[in-house]
C-alpha cells in the first residue's frame, strides 16, 4: 500500500498551510512532528479527505482518493485533534454507532467494540455515559473508534493529549501491535510519543516537510552541536534564556546541567554529547533567542 | 442502514428539545381542548341552559330535532323556535348567541331583529345540498388544531435543526471520514428527521381528534361547514365540505406543512454552522410569509399559501378557489411539500458530504 501526495497545496486566503508537498508513505508508523501552526492538522485533514486541496492530489496505490471516495474511507481510521462525541451515549453505544458508519455488521461491531474498549482500558466504563468521562478517557475512546474497522491507514492527530504516562505507554504498545502492514501516521508536537514507535519521522515547518528519516539516525545531523554545561543554579535561568536550551537538570550540589544547542562550545566547561530527537526538534523549531548576548557571557 | 436510522432516531429523541416539544404540544392540546369544551354555552330558547358538557348536550339535542338536509321548512321551524324572547337593545340578532344551531341559522336567514330575512335555502346556498347537525364541537376542534399544528410544524423545525449542524460541533470529522459518512449517514438523518417530524404531527392530530371524538361524538362529521355558527361565517372556507372532509384536508395539510418545513430545515441545518443559527433561519423562513403585506386578492398570495405555515393555518389555502373541476387549490400543497422536501434532501446531502472541516 502506498499513499502519495503530489504537489499538495492548501491555502487559506493568503496563508499557505501546506506548501507543494510531495511525500510517499508505504506501510509503517510515521511520526509527523511540528510546532503549532506548522500545517500538521491541515495535512492530516487533506489525507483524510476532510478538506479539498487548493492544488495537487493524493493518491492511494495510484488512484486519487477523491475518486476512490467510499473505498478510501473504508480503509481509513481517524482520530481528530479535538475529538468530540455524543455525551448522552455510552462508550459502547458510541462505538456501535461509529461501527454502523463504517459499515461493520452488528455482530462484528459488538465484538470489535468490546475488544477495543478492553485494549484502551475502558471495558469497566463501557456502559457509562460519555459525559461522565474525563478528558483522558474520551481520548482513549477516540483511539478505539479510529481502530474499529481495522483500518489500513490509521491517522491520529495528537493522540496522547490528556493521557497520563501509564496510558501513553499502553497507547504506544497498542499502536505498535496494530501497525503491522499498515500505514500509521501520528501527528504530534510531543517528541517522546513518536520516538519509540515511529519508523520514520517527518518534521513539518511552514507547510513543508523539512526533515524526514529514521528517529535513531536523523539526530546525527546535528552531531557536534549539542552540549552539556554545568552552571550554578542561581545563574541557570539567565543561561537558559541566552541559548537554545533543550533541558535543565538540577544536581544536589547547587548546580544545574543545561543541555544546549550551539554550533560552537557555549562556555568553557561545555561537554559535547550525542544529540537526540528532541534536540533535533529544537534545532528545527528554535525561535530567535538572545544568541548575540551568548558570546558576551 | 437500519442501524444508522435507529441511532439517528435515538439522537433526536434523546434531545431535551424534542422531549420538551412533545410534552408541550400534548399539554397544550389537552388545555386548549378542555378550555374550549368548558367555555361552551347553550340555551335552548325555553328552559335549558348550561356550559361545558351541559351546553354540548343541549346543542346536540337541538341538532337532533332538525338534523338532515336543510330545507325551507326547517328554516321556518327553527326561526320560530329561536325567536328572540327579549329586547335586543339595538344588538344584531345574528350576534346574540343562544346555541350553535341558532347562531348558524341567524347568520344566514335572520334580519337584525331576529326575524326571517325572506331568503330561501337556494337563495343562500344555491343548488348545494346542506346537511345540518351539531358541527360546533368539531369546528372548534379544527380551530384549535390550527394553533397546535402551526406550533407542531415549528417544533418539527426545532427538532430537526441540529440534525446536520449539530455534527459540525466536532463529530463531523468522525462521520465524514467513515465509509458511509457522506452517503448513508445523510440518508439516515433525513429519514429519522422526517419520521420524527411526521410522528409529532401524527401524535398532535391523533390526540386532538380522539379528544374531540370523546367529547363531541361523531354525529357532526357528515354535516356541512357552510351552515356553521357565527365564529365561522366570516372569511371561512366557502365550499360545501363536510366537517369530516374538512378535518381530512386539515390533517393532510398539516403533514404537507411539516414535510415542507422539515425539508427547508434539512437544507438550512446542513448550510448553517451551528444548531442555533439553523433554528433561527428555519424559524425566519417559516414565519416570514405571514408577515408579508400581501393582500389575499394578490396573485402572489396564491403562491405564498403554498409555503408551509399556510398549510398548517389551512383556512387561507382552503379558501382559494378550485383549480379546475372539483380539484381544490389546496391539493397543490402536496406537490409543493414534496418539492420542498426533495430540494431539502438534495441540498442537505450535497452540502454535508462536501462540508469542509475547519
Instruction: Compute the separation of the termini of chain A in Å.
Output: 54 Å
Q: Kindly give the count of domains of chain A.
A: 2
Q: Which regions of chain B have little confidence, pLDDT < 50, spanning 5+ residues? A: none
Q: Helical element count of chain A?
A: 11
Physical arrangement of strands within the biggest beta sheet of chain B: 1-2
Q: Describe the sheet with the most strands of chain B.
A: 2 strands, antiparallel
Radius of gyration of chain B: 24 Å
Helix content of chain A: 25-40%
Share of helix of chain B, binned: 55-70%
Largest sheet of chain A: 6 strands, mixed
Gross geometry of chain A: globular
What class do helices, strands and sheet pairing of chain A give? alpha/beta
CATH architecture of the largest domain in chain A: 3-Layer(aba) Sandwich
Q: Give the class of chain B from helix and strand content and strand pairing.
A: mainly alpha
CATH class of the largest domain in chain A: Alpha Beta
Anisotropy-based shape of chain B: elongated
CATH topology of the largest domain in chain A: Rossmann fold
Count of discrete alpha- or pi-helical segments spanning 4 or more residues of chain B = 16
Largest interface: A-B, 29 and 22 residues
What's the N-to-C terminus distance of chain B? 28 Å
3D structure, described in words:
The complex is a heterodimer of chains A (297) and B (358). The C terminus of chain A is likely disordered. Chain A is built from 11 helices and 14 strands. Chain A folds into 2 domains: 218 residues, P-loop containing nucleotide triphosphate hydrolases (Rossmann fold); 74 residues, no CATH class. Chain A has 297 residues and is α/β, with parallel strands linked by helices. In chain A, strand 12 and strand 13 form a beta hairpin. The N and C termini of chain A lie far apart (54 Å). In chain A, 33% of the residues lie in helices and 30% in strands. In chain A, the strands form 3 sheets. Chain A has a 6-stranded mixed sheet. Chain A has a 4-stranded antiparallel sheet with strand order 2-1-4-5. Chain A has a 4-stranded antiparallel sheet with strand order 12-13-11-14. Chain B folds into 2 domains: 253 residues, no CATH class; 93 residues, no CATH class. Helices cover 63% and strands 4% of the residues of chain B. Chain B is elongated and about 80 Å long. The mean pLDDT of chain B is 88. At the A-B interface, helix 3 and helix 4 of A face helix 1 and helix 9 of B.
